[in-house]
Amino acid sequence: MITCGSRSAQLPLRIPDLTEEKILAGLTEIKPSAFQKSSWIREIIIPEGYTKIGERVFFKCINVVNVTLPSTMKHIGHQAFEGCRKLQNINLDHVEIFGQESFKNCGKLSTLNLTRAVTIGAAAFNRCYQARIVSNSNRVDIGVERGGVERDGVERDGVERGEVDENVLVVNPKLSFVKTIGRNAFMGSRGGNRKIIYFRDLKSLGSNAFTHSDVYGINCKECCNLINIGIGAFAFSKLRRFVFPERNKIKVLRQEVFKYCDLKTVTLPRGMQEIERYAFYCCKDLETVTLPRGVQEIQKCAFYCCKVFWNRGLYPRVKKDRCEL
């Protein structure tokens, strides 16, 4: 039995505690569509023991503001909170899997703690306009102290001393478990603070994943298994810094991937063979591009309308007749 307050009073919805028998039997999921379109719910409290919220469980619960999840919660299903347009606070620091569109159209969602995330499904945080990624300040191995220097005293790539304040996130690679980010995952996320995000295990970044977002920097230096960056992944974003994997497996830089970004300098890694059309289209601040010798083709308008410094003599194997700068 679900216990809750009067619907008119919009008191918290308290999911009942799990019995030991249910936990042992693995019955730790809130079943799909259990409370979808329940406009009377304002707050949700889920006790310890539950590990998964099924598909569309709280779909379009339009008056939900606060959600408390247990430390055992690992999986949030497809569209579980989609359309919860008043949702502001939810603790996600133990969740590993985010289903497709799980928080889509949660326009007031303010903070995202994704330090344990492994899979972020397509459009998981699409149109979360106010969302910003944060870390738990109590963890000694996450974050940047004032001045932009990590606690080990080493300045990170793209972080200048005195430039970073307490609102900027640097996720230590040792705690960055994300392997998959689906298409449109953070499209339109504009939390208002600059972010530099470090990945270690990222394997795939979907199309338009950060389109129209205010992401400040991405460091994939240790992502030795990253094989795909989708079309338009960072198009129209505020991206100023992107570091490719040191052990690169990406052979083709897809079309429009950095279109209309704020990049200033780009160093493409060894193994990159092709740059598709419009890859850096209208990156008007882009001044320096460093190419590896293995690049064989640069397609039409790849660097169109860029303020790019280009030393043609260094890369004789590039088919310059296909390159329009």
Strand content: 15-25%
**Strand order, largest beta sheet:** 3-5-7-9-11-14-16-18
Mean pLDDT figure: 78
The assigned structural class equals mainly beta
Main sheet: strands, sense, barrel = 8 strands, parallel
Distance between the termini: 66 Å
Helical content (DSSP H or I, runs of 4+)? under 10%
SS field, number of helical segments = 1
Find the count of extended strands (DSSP E, 2+ residues).
24
Shape: elongated
Cα-based radius of gyration, to the nearest Å: 22 Å
| SSE string | EEHEEEEEEEEEEEEEEEEEEEEEE
* Contiguous runs where pLDDT drops below 50 for at least 5 residues: 1-8, 135-175, 309-325
Could you explain the architecture of this structure?
The longest helix has 5 residues, at 20-24. The radius of gyration is 22 Å and the shape is elongated. It has a domain at 28-104. It has one helix and 24 strands. The protein is 2% helix and 17% strand. The strands form six sheets. It has an eight-stranded parallel β-sheet with strand order 3-5-7-9-11-14-16-18, with no helix packed on it. The protein starts with a strand and ends in a 27-residue tail after the last strand. Mean pLDDT is 78; it is low at 1-8, 135-175 and 309-325. The protein has 325 residues and is mainly beta.
